[in-house]
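[recover] target loaded
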């Protein structure tokens, strides 16, 4: 289960993307999490997913 607080979620997601997953799709499938919910939560604090970098970056 992923944290709900957006700043902690950002840290956890980017760490997992860097260390364990080649894409956000792989992460979401493996952890059975909603890609849309993650994108929406992090968008609210000004971050967007960059597939080329495989991380969430500041808009």
């Amino acid at each position: 289960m992923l944290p709900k607080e957006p700043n902690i979620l950002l840290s956890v997601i980017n760490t997992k993307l860097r260390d364990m997953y080649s894409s956000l799709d792989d992460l979401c499938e493996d952890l059975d999490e909603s890609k849309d919910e993650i994108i929406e939560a992090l968008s609210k604090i000004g971050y967007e997913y960059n597939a080329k970098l495989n991380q969430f970056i500041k808009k």
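[recover] notes: The helical segments are 6-19, 24-31, 35-43.
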